[in-house]
């Protein structure tokens, strides 16, 4: 890469701190939002994991509970890095080791969260739309093996985030477009857009099947439709604005207009904050996935909201 490109497009830590100082109220707001997401998300996910381990005993339960447990584990591990992110919104970090570790956790666990959300939706789709495809369901029922495979694969794909500084360490600092950076971005966009299209497809097929069904498993289909639609909405709210702004931000690496780059960087930082919201929304999806989980969670943490009705004697079959 030629020297002119390096000099005109690489921002130093001082430039990053200047942007924060010039927009201090905005970045204090961003930091506060991330801090609030950390506190609420950690408390909420701890209560969820308590239900999975001590009440549901997920390892003895159905396939979907193992996937959901891995999803809550991914959310908790993602939350661990949020205090560093909140600090970086007020003070540009010069500790590259801490930065790389935080980014590794961010990429690994956001990727895991997306992967397990997708697997849960695919499992529900095949269970209610194609129950006759036993070979596919037999594979999906191997949830422990699939879960280990997802974590290992994502760990390998996330290693490049540890090898150098990264555009999101402080969004006003940019990497050179090396091969490693390009490969990293391909992985990032692939793990968001491909699952999103898969989820939209599953949602549309379930809705279509629901319209064609007049008797039988109509209630089960409705529950599956609500779950998959909920996952699509979480994606659309938390990940798509973040991904699109990231694409614009990367495109601005080759732009020599610093003010425009800074404006895009501030918008990008805002959508980064929004992307962490999935750690608060995922527990709603657990309730949509399982009426048993919902009843247990409400009875433990909100006993006053328990309906005075006879409890259901059976849980959904999937």
TrEMBL record:
Keywords: G-protein coupled receptor, Membrane, Receptor, Transducer, Transmembrane, Transmembrane helix. The chain crosses the membrane at residues 27-52, 64-84, 146-166, 186-204, 224-244, 267-288. InterPro entries: GPCR_Rhodpsn (IPR000276), GPCR_Rhodpsn_7TM (IPR017452), HCARs (IPR051893). One of its GO terms (molecular function) is G protein-coupled receptor activity. It is found in: Membrane. Residues 44-286 form the G-protein coupled receptors family 1 profile domain. SUPFAM superfamilies: Family A G protein-coupled receptor-like. Its main location: membrane. Signal peptide: none annotated. GO terms for cellular component: membrane. Pfam families: 7tm_1. It comes from the Eukaryota. The keyword Membrane applies. The keyword Transmembrane applies. It is a multi-pass membrane protein. PANTHER family: 12-(S)-HYDROXY-5,8,10,14-EICOSATETRAENOIC ACID RECEPTOR, HYDROXYCARBOXYLIC ACID RECEPTOR 2. This is G-protein coupled receptors family 1 profile domain-containing protein. It comes from Triplophysa rosa (Cave loach).
